[in-house]
Amino acid sequence: MTDWQPGISLDRLRQRSRVLAELRGFFQQRNILEVDVPVLATTSVTDRNIESIATLPGASSGLEASSGLGASGGLEASSGLGAFSGLGAFSESEALSESEASAIKSYLQTSPEYFMKRLLAAGSGDIFCLGKAFRSGEAGVRHNPEFTLLEWYRCGWDEHQLMAELGELIETLLPAVAINKYSYAELFAKYFNIDPHQAELSSLQKLAVEAGSSAWSDDSRGNCLDLLFSVVIEPQLSDGLVLVYDYPACQAALAKCYKDAQGRRVSRRFEAFLNRVELANGYFELTDGQEQASRFAEDQQARKIAGKPLMEIDQNLLAALESGLPECSGVALGVDRLLMQIEGATSLDQVMPFSWDRC
Amino acid sequence: MANYSTNEFRPGLKVMLDGDPCSILENELVKPGKGQAFNRVKLRNLKTARVLEKTFKSGESVEAADVMDADMQYLYNDGDFWCFMEPDTFEQHQATENAVGDALQWLSEQDMCVVTLYNGAPLSVTPPNHVELEIVETDPGLRGDTAQGGNKPAKLSTGAVVKVPLFLDEGEIVRVDTRTGEYQGRVSNK
C-alpha cells in the first residue's frame, strides 16, 4: 500500500474526463444506445486464459445480507486470492478449499459481452457500454484487476465495417494516426515464413521453444501461436493503429468461423494494436447457440486439464442465442490503455485515479 | 538445488539458464487479452557477464543457481591460484585468474573482498571499493606541464596504472576507487 494520493496527475484526471465524454459523444452522434449492464453475476466466462474474481457470501444468507460482500471478507479470485501485490507482481493463487469453492455465489464480470448479447437478442439494436471490467491476477504496468472497457455492437455489420469504425474512433482522439490492416496469416508469412493455419503443430512448437523456452515444447497450437505473435510479431508492428483479422480457428472464442479466400478455416476475429500495445478485440459474432455451447464445453475441458477451477456455463446467454441473436459484430477496447497512448504515459497507474496498489 | 517458479522471480534472484548461473535483472509479466501469461525476463550471465533476454511461461519452473557472495580476505597467490580465506571459519578458497578478473590489478595481501561462489567455487571477485597503493613508476612531472590537464600516468605496486596529479612522485601512497579506477587522494606518509 503506498500513500493516500492518486496515481494520476490532476491534468490527466481532467484529460480522462474529457476523453470519456468524447467517447460517449462519438456513439451518441451515431445514435448508438448507451447501456449499463451488471458487473456482478452468478456465472462468468469459461475462457481458458481468463480468471474471474469471485465473491463469497457473508456470514448470513449470501448476497441478500445488507453487509453486501460479507463478513468473511470481500473479493477472492475464482482460483483463490490473486495477490495483486504491487505493480509487476503476478502470483498464481492457491486453490480455495472445497467449502469455499462451493460457497461462491457470484463473479465480477470480465466484460459486458454476455449481458449485451442478451440485450441484442431482446431487440435493443446497436448498443455501447462504457464501464468497469474485472480480471483476477492481472496487475502491472499495462494491467489492473479493475479496468475500463468500452464495448459496442453493430447489427448487420461484419467485422471489417466495425474495424473501419474503430479506426474512426481512434482518429477522433489521435488525429492523423497511421492505420494499417493485415491478416493474421500475412504477419506470420512475413515474420516466420509459415502458414499459421496449416503448419504442423511440431513446427509451431519448435518455433515457440526458440522464441520462449522448453515449456512450449508440447504446448497446444493456440498457445504456440499466441507466444509467437506476442513475443516476436507484436513488438515489430508499426506505429499507430494496426488491425489484425482472420485469427486462427483454434482462437475463435465467440466469433464465427469461415473458409477464407485460400480455403483455410479461420475465425472472424480481429485485434487492434496501438503503438504495439494490445488495445481491442472484436468478432463477427457467433450466433449459433449449439456451436457456442460446444465451444464452452471444450473450454471447460481445457480448464480441467490445466487444473483451473470449473466455471459453470452461462445458460442465459445460450438461451438468448437460441432465441435469436441478430447478425452483428462487436468489439471491446481498453480505455485505460488508450489513454496511456494518447498521453504518452508509461503505466496504467498514471492514467487511472487509483491503480490496485493504492486501493 | 531447489527450483523457482516465475511467480518468485525478482531482481537479484540467481537461476540456471542453459547451464550457466544467471542473475535476474528485470522481470515483466505479459498477459495477452485472451492468451496465456508469460514473463519477459532480463538476466545477466554470471560467467560471461553478458546480458540476455528470455521469455518464460508464467508458472514455469527454473532451476535455482547455487550462487552466493561471501566476505573473504585475500591471502596470496602462487601464479596459478589466488587464495582467499573466510575470516570466521578460516576456510580457504582457491580462485583462478579468470575468476579474479579485473580485481587482479587492485589486490594486496590481506585486503577484504567479496567473493562470489558458484557451487562452492569462486566465480568472481570484487575488490574493496577503495585501495591504498604505492606509486612504483612515474615521470617526475615538471611544473607547468599541463599537456594532460595536470595529470600524469602512474604505475602502482599491483601493476595498475592510474592518472595522478603532477606533484606526486614514486614512493608516494595514493588512494584509488576501484570501481572507477580514479585517483581519490594522497595518503600522508608516516
Give the helix/strand layout:
The complex is a heterodimer of chains A (359) and B (190).
Chain A lengths: L9 H20 L3 E2 L5 E2 L11 E3 L19 E3 L20 H6 L2 E3 L4 H9 L5 E8 L11 E10 L3 H15 L5 E5 H9 L8 H11 L9 H13 L7 E5 L1 E2 L8 E3 L5 E3 L1 E6 L2 E8 L4 H17 L9 H10 L3 E7 H9 L16
Parallel strand pairs in A: 1-6, 8-9
Antiparallel strand pairs in A: 2-5, 3-4, 3-5, 6-7, 7-15, 9-13, 10-12, 11-12, 13-14, 14-15
Helix pairs in contact in A: 3-9, 6-7, 8-9
Chain B lengths: L2 E3 L8 E4 L2 E11 L7 E8 L5 E7 L3 E3 L3 E11 L3 E5 L6 E5 H4 L11 E7 L2 E6 L3 E9 L12 E6 L4 E5 L7 E5 L4 E6 L3
Antiparallel strand pairs in B: 1-6, 2-3, 3-4, 4-5, 7-8, 7-10, 8-9, 10-11, 12-13, 12-15, 13-14, 15-16
Can you give me a brief rundown of this structure?
The complex is a heterodimer of chains A (359) and B (190). Chain A has 359 residues and is α+β, with helices and mostly antiparallel strands.
Task: From the structure above, extract its key features.
heterodimer, A: 359 residues, alpha+beta, BirA Bifunctional Protein, domain 2, 8-stranded mixed β-sheet, 4-stranded antiparallel β-sheet, 10 helices, 33% helix, B: 190 residues, mainly beta, SH3 type barrels, OB fold (Dihydrolipoamide Acetyltransferase, E2P), 3 domains, 5-stranded antiparallel β-sheet, 1 helix, 16 strands
